[in-house]
Specification:
It is built from 5 helices and 10 strands; from the N terminus they run E-H-E-H-E-H-E-H-E-E-E-H-E-E-E. It is an alpha/beta fold. It has a 7-stranded mixed sheet with strand order 6-5-4-7-8-9-10, sandwiched between helices. It has a 3-stranded parallel sheet with strand order 1-2-3. Strand 5 and strand 6 form a beta hairpin. Helix 3 packs parallel to helix 4.
């Protein structure tokens, strides 16, 4: 107050612990709730976030103004013009991807994945391709790419199902902890909004 500051805003595009938004197995911590309590203790007037992993984080953070993925693509809707279909990597991303597809009335190809919650290990990916014939170009959309195994498994299935179709990948938050060499085997272009560190071959979409 003595500096004339009446309120403080925090811009935190990537929310730490956002993926630990529930307790899956006995003994786990609800890490996101703990982080939100710590953040709330600072009494920010506004906390601006971007494409949280789920609706849980914005609900737990006080005075949160959340920018959805759809908001980003609404500003870049022409970017979507080159795609015939969007792909959602799992059940959790389906609602998010369909909201983006609605901007220019694109169909969505859903994928389902199986994960062991005790180890985090993915076992397989299933595509739901009923009625999809010869797509001209696909765009996979999700919130986070960490190690990338989700997208590698998905890329393998997409290339197996549509071997002649170009495929691109967009993620809002790019960690790319294991690099992008394996991803580039399946994706022609990789786009990201919030890139944690510069990586050649990843294009920033703003």
């Amino acid at each position: 107050d003595h500096l004339g500051i009446t309120e403080v805003h925090l811009f935190i595009p990537y929310i730490p612990y956002a993926r630990q938004d529930r307790i899956c197995d006995t003994g786990e911590a609800f890490s996101l709730k703990v982080f939100a309590r710590l953040l709330n203790s600072a009494n920010f007037a506004k906390v601006i976030t971007l494409d949280a992993h789920s609706d849980v984080a914005p609900a737990l953070i006080n005075n949160c103004i959340h920018r959805e993925t759809k908001d980003l693509f609404a500003l870049n809707s022409r970017f979507l013009d080159k795609y015939s279909h969007l792909v959602s990597p799992d059940a959790g991303s389906y609602k998010k991807v369909t909201s983006i597809a609605s901007l220019i009335d694109l169909p969505v190809i859903p994928a389902l994945k199986t994960r062991d919650t005790t180890t985090g290990r993915l076992s397989n990916t299933i595509l739901v391709t009923d009625g999809v014939e010869s797509p001209s170009r696909l765009l996979v959309i999700d919130d986070i790419c960490d190690g990338g195994y989700t997208f590698i498994l998905l890329g393998k299935e997409l290339k197996k199902t549509f071997p002649d179709t170009p495929i691109d990948l967009y993620v809002s938050h790019g960690i790319f902890g294991k690099g992008i060499d394996e991803l580039k085997k399946y994706y022609d272009n990789i786009y990201c909004y919030n890139l944690f560190s510069p990586i050649p071959g990843v294009t920033i979409l703003d």
